[in-house]
Amino acid sequence: MARQVLPREAPPIDIMFLVERLNALLENGRKLPLSNNVVVDQAAALDLVEQLRLAVPEEVKQEEADRVVARAQEQAAFLIEERELTRAAEQRSAQIVADGHAQADEIRRGADEYAAGVLIRLEGEVVKVLQSIKHGLALLDDRAPVPTMTADEAEEADVAASGAQL
Questions:
Q1: 47: nearest Cα among 29, 27, 22
Q2: Whose CA is closest to 22, among 3, 1, 41?
Q3: Is pTM, for the whole model, over 0.90?
Q4: Which ranges in 6-165 belong to alpha helices (H)?
Q5: Pairwise CA distance, residues 92 & 86, whole Å
Q6: Distance from C-alpha of 43 to C-alpha of 38, rounded to nearest angstrom
Q7: What digits encode the pLDDT tens for the residues 118-132?
Q8: What is the distance between the alpha carbons of residues 105 and 101, in angstroms, rounded to a whole number?
Q9: Is the Cβ–Cβ distance between 25 and 48 less than 8 Å?
Q10: Long-range contacts: 68-77, Cβ < 8 Å, 24+?
Q11: Residue 25's closest CA among 16, 38, 35?
Q12: Rounded CA gap, 96 and 7, in Å?
């Protein structure tokens, strides 16, 4: 079985290194007399330019990746801070609600105690009034004349009583 060789990604090339090599190629080129022109090895110069072309996108990609990572880290820090603020706000609101319930319970307890006191006093007053009413009725009963029957009424009562016995 033939072994398959996977292509390896070339290590990133430092752009500054390539620029230095291009600069050295131009400085070491042969000067033409009476001009500022130099003769350089065209193949070497073109090779350096091609390496620069390949290296620039990698450098730019790396820089962009670094910016994306930094932005993501800032966003994550912001979200963590926002989450902490939200959690703290939720805890504070829960505490406020709990305090409100406790205060409402205390007010309700006080209102119940007040109502019970009022009702107990009212009951005492009602008992006193009822006793006065009973006392008044008793006095009226004591002063009322005993009804007397006429002879005819007595005879009718006797007849009715004897008829009921039969």
A1: 22
A2: 41
A3: no
A4: 15-27, 42-143, 151-165
A5: 10
A6: 15
A7: 999 999 999 999 999
A8: 6
A9: yes
A10: none
A11: 38
A12: 65
User: DSSP assignment, residue 148?
Assistant: -
Length of the chain: 166
DSSP label at residue 149:
-
Q: Are 22 and 55 in contact (CB under 8 A)?
A: no
Quickly list DSSP for 19-48: HHHHHHHHHTSEEPTTSS-EE--HHHHHHH
Report in angstroms the alpha-carbon separations of 104 from 92, 96, 108, 109, 128.
18, 12, 6, 8, 36
Measured CA to CA, the distance from residue 158 to residue 160 in angstroms comes to 5
Rounded to whole angstroms, how far apart are CA atoms 2 and 5? 9
Distances from the Cα of 107 to the Cα of 16, 93, 97, 113, angstroms: 78, 21, 15, 10
pLDDT of 7 reads 44
- Evaluate if residue 148 carries a pLDDT over 60: yes
Phi (first) and psi of residue 4, to 5 degrees: -95, 130
Say which residue the tokens 């009583």 belong to.
161
For residue 6, how far is the Cα from the chain centroid? 53
The Cα–Cα gap between 67 and 46 comes to 32
